[in-house]
């Protein structure tokens, strides 16, 4: 943080939007630490093929050996190096998290834009469909889908992606509804700009902030869900390693009590990743808060958005996946 | 307000129908739903005869109507594995799950409501930071990991709590025994729920505290304590009600994993083994049931909302 | 587009019997219980180079009228004729071309500019899209626009929140002018500004009218402002025009009781002028009630009302033979010249 250079009013006035966000984000120390931690973990995961001491599927040592110089985190029950497996597992878990979030965000944004902007029957249909999908308890839906469509890496990614979008869709729709009434959107309509311009160039950039915040919680949730599913055997299948299925072995009493190196590292890593993502997301929400970013605005032209404007978000806000 | 309730009920109907359709559609992926209704123990000839009788040769939307008809009569199909009626299976496993869910809900509320309110009132204090950080961790730990930790600590190391089941094997139980078995599953469920709840209640109460009418009350000379406890908290009832409503669907999902881990003989365990065995009739029956419960929970929440807050209108 | 007759006596814009009704709903099934007549049969015409002022209190329908002209709302009845062609019966591609000819300046300058874009983008995008500029000359054109409204070039890289209200309104005007419109609808452009800035913007508008031979509709509720920029003024009440006359004429001889009261409400420094413009104190508030409407909309509050007023259908008629001063009050002119 700048100790030698005071931020003056002129500096603030001249900032563009993202600079302001970053400046405000920096005030949240925990979030900055989390960001750094995430960066380290992600880099390690991406570089796994380069830095892992052993091939994760190679039986390199004795069964279930405790940590030693040769195997920093010990070996698992069939003799594979834990550290290497951990690195690759993190990779997979991150991949699932990112891709599932990307898919559900894309679906949610598009449906939200369409419903919110065009209104009428399209909107009603989309909202009813959203309600229906949200009514099914999340875990159940995912488990069932995993049961029907054989589990595997890509099934899991697609399933999570197709189940997470309702929250984003509602969020985007609400924002679009109020943005639609603002004068700059009306001004674009009067200027004869095409619908795609209005949607993607006028409306979308102004709702990026809440989407970003929500996406971080979706990502945290996807990672938790992947872990839970893999733990239950419905997610990433062995021999591929994911943080979840590495914990599977801990169901046996011997492992639980006598071989903590088999389950503590993956478990802790999940917790760290999810906590870090949550911290970042929370700080991002504060930093992106529009009421403090811009100078004083006139009273808004917003209209009430969704009927259920009461914070009844999707499971992503309820933290369902944590259990 | 009655108008609102009626309107709300009417809105719920299409969603309900939609849920049955989705349920039916998913089942179609897995096999023929109508077939599953009848059970699997039939010979080939009987199958053919039954097919005509069942109407399996009819188009799928007719099958849907027939399936729906059966459903409304209470027939949810038969388990592929145990040939038991799904409805009776659900009935026998419902009790333990309700017990678990109910207690977890209460415990999580006991944890989160005071903490959330305290945190909001003393914003930016050390206590606030502690609460917020704790809630972060609470909602970030995967349930199964927490379960493992708890079992490790209380069962393996300390040996004071049983590691699974509802009653100690061989005994007939008793309230104390059941309670001991419940401690860890309830902890797991309530901790993760509390994590989210605390954040939600905290931000809701914060928002209330910033309202101008509180400033007016202070300006009128009403003491700070009185302002908070008499004026502000009354309005906190609304977010608390919302939170309760939000928890019902979460509980359903959470129960599945926790029951599996602690061998708690409830719906979750039943569902989990059904999933592992690809026992679709059971799976879909439970899905349908839970979706309906969620719908009802949302409905009741909305109605309680309308009762508590007279300003709500449904456009 | 050149008219065939060089004198251009055909009006640029004609509005005939324009209506905008909103349905009021109530009950569980949202039954329609009546209509809110925001705009209730408005007719007038504007010629090239003219500025028509539209004045009335909040809720009288002037903004709705303005929005219908630029296409933000669809009329429920009546016609809008632009250069003689009916806008409601045009096919999409034709309409698209004409839309750019009818532009609007909004009241709230801040919300009319996308807060995420800098000024260059805001001004350049419509021009580039419609082919009024290309990559080579876009900078010139944008700079020309800024110059026109009295802003410096360095505004281009800045964001809307960095400007003051008056400057933002200038940008809004520049944006509206960027498409070379034939008609500019100004919807209360100065109502949200400080009084001292109002004067600046009004002067700007007046100068632009002259420089660019702009045709415009100026909507406002401040009589002084409207009078300053307008050639003719229409007074609206509850969705209808109750009086329409040249500015000077209206100011000197308001005939409709409502207009008189409006002028009365303007604080006047000169006590002699105050006495001259009689009228009475109006009570109550203008309320648009759903329900059938016959007779004068001002009936409930009018100090001069009589039985005929509630029954007769109100029409704008010339105050006297051949006069261009139109008024809808049947008692107009009866108490002698004020």
UniProtKB/TrEMBL annotation, chain A:
<feature type="transmembrane region" description="Helical">
    <location>
        <begin position="92"/>
        <end position="118"/>
    </location>
</feature>
<comment type="similarity">
    <text>Belongs to the binding-protein-dependent transport system permease family.</text>
</comment>
<dbReference type="InterPro" id="IPR050366">
    <property type="entry name" value="BP-dependent_transpt_permease"/>
</dbReference>
<feature type="transmembrane region" description="Helical">
    <location>
        <begin position="30"/>
        <end position="52"/>
    </location>
</feature>
<dbReference type="Pfam" id="PF12911">
    <property type="entry name" value="OppC_N"/>
</dbReference>
<dbReference type="Pfam" id="PF00528">
    <property type="entry name" value="BPD_transp_1"/>
</dbReference>
<feature type="transmembrane region" description="Helical">
    <location>
        <begin position="261"/>
        <end position="281"/>
    </location>
</feature>
<keyword id="KW-1133">Transmembrane helix</keyword>
<keyword id="KW-0813">Transport</keyword>
<dbReference type="GO" id="GO:0055085">
    <property type="term" value="P:transmembrane transport"/>
</dbReference>
<keyword id="KW-0812">Transmembrane</keyword>
<keyword id="KW-0472">Membrane</keyword>
<dbReference type="InterPro" id="IPR035906">
    <property type="entry name" value="MetI-like_sf"/>
</dbReference>
<feature type="compositionally biased region" description="Basic and acidic residues">
    <location>
        <begin position="305"/>
        <end position="323"/>
    </location>
</feature>
<feature type="region of interest" description="Disordered">
    <location>
        <begin position="301"/>
        <end position="323"/>
    </location>
</feature>
<keyword id="KW-1003">Cell membrane</keyword>
<dbReference type="GO" id="GO:0005886">
    <property type="term" value="C:plasma membrane"/>
</dbReference>
<feature type="transmembrane region" description="Helical">
    <location>
        <begin position="138"/>
        <end position="163"/>
    </location>
</feature>
<dbReference type="InterPro" id="IPR000515">
    <property type="entry name" value="MetI-like"/>
</dbReference>
<feature type="domain" description="ABC transmembrane type-1">
    <location>
        <begin position="90"/>
        <end position="281"/>
    </location>
</feature>
<dbReference type="InterPro" id="IPR025966">
    <property type="entry name" value="OppC_N"/>
</dbReference>
<protein>
    <submittedName>
        <fullName>ABC transporter permease</fullName>
    </submittedName>
</protein>
TrEMBL record, chain C:
<comment type="similarity">
    <text>Belongs to the ABC transporter superfamily.</text>
</comment>
<dbReference type="GO" id="GO:0055085">
    <property type="term" value="P:transmembrane transport"/>
</dbReference>
<keyword id="KW-0067">ATP-binding</keyword>
<dbReference type="InterPro" id="IPR050319">
    <property type="entry name" value="ABC_transp_ATP-bind"/>
</dbReference>
<keyword id="KW-0813">Transport</keyword>
<dbReference type="Pfam" id="PF00005">
    <property type="entry name" value="ABC_tran"/>
</dbReference>
<dbReference type="GO" id="GO:0015833">
    <property type="term" value="P:peptide transport"/>
</dbReference>
<dbReference type="InterPro" id="IPR027417">
    <property type="entry name" value="P-loop_NTPase"/>
</dbReference>
<dbReference type="InterPro" id="IPR013563">
    <property type="entry name" value="Oligopep_ABC_C"/>
</dbReference>
<feature type="domain" description="ABC transporter">
    <location>
        <begin position="13"/>
        <end position="263"/>
    </location>
</feature>
<dbReference type="GO" id="GO:0016887">
    <property type="term" value="F:ATP hydrolysis activity"/>
</dbReference>
<dbReference type="InterPro" id="IPR003593">
    <property type="entry name" value="AAA+_ATPase"/>
</dbReference>
<protein>
    <submittedName>
        <fullName>ATP-binding cassette domain-containing protein</fullName>
    </submittedName>
</protein>
<dbReference type="Pfam" id="PF08352">
    <property type="entry name" value="oligo_HPY"/>
</dbReference>
<dbReference type="InterPro" id="IPR003439">
    <property type="entry name" value="ABC_transporter-like_ATP-bd"/>
</dbReference>
<dbReference type="GO" id="GO:0005524">
    <property type="term" value="F:ATP binding"/>
</dbReference>
<dbReference type="InterPro" id="IPR017871">
    <property type="entry name" value="ABC_transporter-like_CS"/>
</dbReference>
<keyword id="KW-0547">Nucleotide-binding</keyword>
């Amino acid at each position: 943080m700048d100790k030698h250079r005071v931020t003056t009013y002129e500096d603030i006035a001249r900032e563009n939007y993202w600079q302001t966000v970053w400046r405000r984000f920096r005030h949240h120390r925990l979030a900055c630490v989390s960001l750094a931690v995430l960066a380290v973990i992600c880099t390690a995961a991406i570089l796994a093929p380069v830095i892992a001491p052993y091939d994760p599927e190679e039986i390199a040592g004795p069964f279930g050996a405790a940590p030693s110089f040769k195997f920093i985190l010990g070996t698992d029950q069939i003799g594979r190096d834990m550290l290497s497996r951990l690195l690759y597992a993190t990779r997979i878990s991150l991949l699932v998290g990112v891709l599932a979030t990307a898919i559900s965000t894309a679906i949610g944004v598009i449906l939200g834009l369409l419903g919110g902007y065009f209104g009428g029957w399209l909107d009603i249909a989309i909202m009813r469909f959203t309600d229906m999908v949200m009514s099914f308890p999340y875990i159940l839906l995912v488990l069932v889908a995993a049961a029907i469509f054989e589990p595997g890496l890509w099934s899991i990614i697609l399933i999570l992606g197709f189940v997470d979008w309702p929250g984003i869709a509602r969020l985007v729709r609400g924002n679009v509804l109020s943005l639609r009434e603002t004068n700059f959107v009306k001004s674009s309509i009067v200027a004869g700009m095409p619908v795609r311009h209005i949607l993607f160039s006028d409306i979308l950039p102004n709702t990026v902030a809440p989407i970003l915040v929500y996406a971080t919680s979706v990502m945290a949730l996807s990672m938790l869900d992947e872990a839970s599913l893999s733990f239950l055997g419905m997610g990433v299948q062995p021999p591929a390693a994911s943080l979840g299925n590495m914990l599977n072995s801990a169901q046996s009493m011997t492992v639980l009590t006598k071989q903590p190196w088999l389950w503590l590292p993956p478990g802790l890593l999940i917790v760290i990743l999810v906590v870090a993502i949550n911290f970042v997301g929370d700080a991002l929400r504060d930093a992106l808060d529009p009421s403090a970013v811009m100078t004083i605005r006139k009273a808004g032209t917003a209209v009430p958005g969704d009927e259920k404007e009461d914070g009844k978000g999707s499971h992503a806000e309820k933290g369902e996946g944590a259990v | 307000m009655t108008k609102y309730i009626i309107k709300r009920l009417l809105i719920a109907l299409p969603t309900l129908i939609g849920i049955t359709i989705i349920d039916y559609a998913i089942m179609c992926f897995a096999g023929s739903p109508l077939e599953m209704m009848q059970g699997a123990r039939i010979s080939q000839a009987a199958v053919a005869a039954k097919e005509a009788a069942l109407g399996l040769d009819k188009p799928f939307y007719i099958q849907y109507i027939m399936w729906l008809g059966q459903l409304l009569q209470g027939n949810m199909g038969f388990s592929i594995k145990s040939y038991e009626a799904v409805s009776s299976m659900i009935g026998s496993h419902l009790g333990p799950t309700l017990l678990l869910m109910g207690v977890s809900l209460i415990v999580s509320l006991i944890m989160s409501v005071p903490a959330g309110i305290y945190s909001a009132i003393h914003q930016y204090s050390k206590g606030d930071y502690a609460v917020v950080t704790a809630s972060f961790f609470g909602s970030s730990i995967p349930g199964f990991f927490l379960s493992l930790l708890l079992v490790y600590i209380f069962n393996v190391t300390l040996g004071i709590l049983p590691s699974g089941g509802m009653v100690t094997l061989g005994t007939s139980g008793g309230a104390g025994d059941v309670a001991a078995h419940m401690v860890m599953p309830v902890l797991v469920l309530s901790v993760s729920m509390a994590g989210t709840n605390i954040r939600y209640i905290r931000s809701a109460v914060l928002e209330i505290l910033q309202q101008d009418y509180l400033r007016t009350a202070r300006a009128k000379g009403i003491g700070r304590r009185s302002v908070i406890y008499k004026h502000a908290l009354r309005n906190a009832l609304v977010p608390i009600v919302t939170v309760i409503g939000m928890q019902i669907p979460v509980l359903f999902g959470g129960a599945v994993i926790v029951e599996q881990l602690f061998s708690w003989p409830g719906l979750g365990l039943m569902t989990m083994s059904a999933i592992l065995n690809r026992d679709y009739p059971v799976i879909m029956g439970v899905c349908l049931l839970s979706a309906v419960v969620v719908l009802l929970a949302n409905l009741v929440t909305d109605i309680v909302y309308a009762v508590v807050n007279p300003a709500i209108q449904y456009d | 587009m050149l008219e065939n007759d060089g004198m251009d006596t055909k009006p640029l814009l004609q509005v005939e019997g324009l209506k905008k009704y909103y349905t009021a709903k109530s009950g569980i099934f949202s039954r329609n219980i009546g209509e809110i007549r925001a705009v209730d049969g408005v007719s007038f015409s504007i010629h090239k180079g003219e500025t028509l002022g539209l004045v009335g209190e909040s809720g009288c329908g002037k903004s709705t009228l303005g929005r219908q002209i630029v296409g933000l709302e669809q009329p429920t009845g009546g016609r809008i004729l632009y250069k003689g062609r009916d806008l409601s019966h045009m096919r999409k591609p034709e309409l698209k071309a004409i839309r750019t000819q009818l532009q609007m300046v909004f009241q709230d300058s801040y919300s009319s500019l996308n807060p995420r874009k800098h000024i260059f983008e805001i001004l350049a995008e419509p021009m580039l899209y419609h082919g009024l500029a290309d990559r080579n000359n876009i900078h010139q054109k944008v700079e020309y626009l800024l110059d026109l409204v009295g802003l410096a070039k360095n505004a281009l890289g800045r964001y809307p929140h960095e400007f003051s209200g008056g400057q933002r309104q200038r940008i809004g005007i520049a944006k509206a002018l960027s498409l070379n419109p034939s008609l500019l609808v100004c919807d209360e452009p100065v109502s949200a500004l400080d009084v001292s800035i109002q004067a600046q913007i009004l002067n700007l508008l007046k100068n632009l009218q002259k420089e660019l031979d702009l045709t415009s509709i100026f909507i406002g509720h401040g009589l002084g402002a409207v009078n300053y920029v307008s050639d003719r003024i229409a007074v609206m009440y509850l969705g209808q025009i109750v009086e329409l006359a040249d500015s000077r004429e209206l100011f000197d001889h308001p005939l409709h009781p409502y207009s008189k009261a409006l002028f009365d409400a303007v604080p006047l420094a000169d006590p002699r002028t105050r006495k001259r413009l009689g009228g009475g104190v109006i009570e109550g508030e203008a309320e648009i009630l759903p329900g059938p409407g016959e007779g004068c909309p001002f009936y409930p509050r009018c100090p001069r009302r009589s039985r005929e007023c509630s029954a007769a259908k109100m029409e704008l008629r010339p105050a006297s033979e051949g006069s261009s001063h139109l008024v809808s009050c049947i008692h107009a002119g009866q108490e002698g010249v004020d």
